[in-house]
Design brief:
The chain is an alpha+beta fold and 404 residues long. The chain is built from ten helices and 19 strands. Strand 7 (180-192) and strand 8 (195-204) form a beta hairpin. The structure holds S-adenosylmethionine.
């Protein structure tokens, strides 16, 4: 009994500390989100973990597939908080969560209040069974848990004021737009050209317009909405370039292109190591035909086959026989905190590809780096699109625009 009491007191203290930390670092700004974090006992949603792990600002991995890839997790509190800030759930809202775990559904339940309603859907029966048990144990028995492919939403509880997707999506499924009520908002980790950002979209007439974005990482969607990326080996199993489904070229670099002599050019553009470069990557994707993302095992860095990129998954461009990719090295001034961006190239077109990448890195640096970042708009596939950079998905088109 005494042990149980002291565990409960410790959980309360750790939860309060986690909430204070998220407020202090500016991740939580809305006091209603802070109150929800202070109220929901996260340890009950990860009963296999110690209290310290339950209240660390870290993801708790729940399940891997046969290949060892994580397919289910209880998300990292700071990502959950950022997405709840984006969602701006109001008392009385009807909310759909896609991808269950229990914890975020409980937070949504707190935010929607007694007059609201929360439905959470997961494709994996193991996840929904567990979510049902932990939600009941934590006192959130009125969250509806549904086992289904979230690609199709949950029509019987629609329309929703808010849809919060907690799994990486490549597209906005038609069901999500259809089930979103007038004035509704959808928050979704959308993967575009190899990077994922959580985007809050508001319904505006027949289309969706972005209101805020934040970089994030989630497990990949399974089911009907899966598999939008194509990997092409360029060094056996150890390095590949990936293209989105809508941009796989007929000709792509051959396996072994990294064996060709390396050309290297530095851009003079220096960035802080902490700086988010996902907008730079999307700018390169918007402006360079043949854009792809190069990934390589760490051992290739150690062997000197590739040099480090500023992020895992380097922005790259490829032609039929050549590839060039973004790299970085410690900056001459403040090398401990800053790096210079450069480009490596291999193959007969290397010089041309390098020039094109370097030009766009410099343009981004001059015109866009300190701007508000891109805006996104979603229209149904096949409709007339506004001006901008278009990414065609199976069901929708994403238009990206860059206010300077
Ligand atoms: C990151 S976890 C969700 C975390 C959760 N929201 C929480 O409270 O921490 C992602 C979940 O999405 C689920 N998922 C993957 N594809 C799905 C789909 N098509 N429909 C519904 N759920 C899906 C996975 O089974 C996994 O449990």
């Amino acid at each position: 009994m005494t042990d149980q009491r002291s565990d409960a007191a410790q959980a309360d203290a750790l939860r309060a500390a986690l909430t204070r930390h998220l407020v202090a670092e500016g991740t939580i700004r809305d006091e209603r989100v802070a109150a929800a974090f202070a109220a929901v006992p996260r340890h009950l949603f990860v009963p296999q973990s110690s209290l310290d792990i339950a209240y660390a600002d870290d993801v708790v991995l729940m399940k891997r597939n046969a290949a060892g890839v994580v397919i289910s997790s209880v998300s990292q509190p700071s990502i959950v908080a950022l997405m709840l800030e984006q969602a701006d759930v109001r008392p009385g809202d009807r909310v759909l969560e896609i991808g269950s775990g229990g914890y975020n559904a409980a937070l949504l339940r707190e935010l929607a209040g007694p007059k609201g309603a929360v439905t959470t859907v997961d494709i994996d029966p193991e996840v929904t069974d567990r979510a049902r048990v932990v939600l009941d144990d934590a006192g959130y028995g009125d969250v509806r848990v549904v086992e289904a492919d979230g690609e199709f939403g949950v029509p019987e509880d629609a329309p929703y004021d808010r849809i919060v997707v907690t799994v990486t999506a490549w597209d906005i499924a038609p069901a999500w737009s259809d089930q979103l009520g007038a004035g509704g908002r959808i928050v979704v980790p959308l993967r575009l050209r190899g990077q994922t950002r959580s985007i809050a979209f508001d319904r505006v007439d027949e289309h969706l317009e972005s209101r805020s974005t934040t970089p994030c990482g989630f497990v990949s969607m399974q089911g009907a909405g899966a598999n939008y990326e194509r990997l092409i080996s360029i060094w056996g199993d150890a390095a590949s370039v990936s293209f989105d489904e809508d941009q796989v070229p007929e000709e792509h670099p051959f396996d072994g292109v990294l064996d060709q002599p390396r050309e290297q050019v530095w851009s003079g553009v220096v960035v802080n190591r902490e700086e988010q470069l996902s907008d730079l990557q999307l700018w390169l994707a918007s402006t360079l035909p043949g854009y792809c993302v190069l990934s390589a095992e760490r051992s290739l860095q150690e062997e000197g086959v590739v040099t480090p990129s500023p992020h895992w998954g380097a922005a790259a461009v490829a032609t039929g026989d050549s590839v060039a990719y973004l790299t970085s090295c410690p900056a001459r001034r403040r090398p401990e905190s800053h790096m210079e961006l450069g480009v490596n190239g291999h193959g007969p077109d290397a010089d041309d590809l390098i020039d094109r990448l370097i030009d766009q890195v410099r343009i981004w640096n001059r015109r866009l780096r300190h701007g508000p970042g891109p805006r996104y708009r979603i229209d149904a596939a096949g409709t007339e699109l506004p001006a901008g950079f278009h990414i065609d998905r199976r069901h929708s088109s994403v238009t990206v625009n860059w206010p300077e």
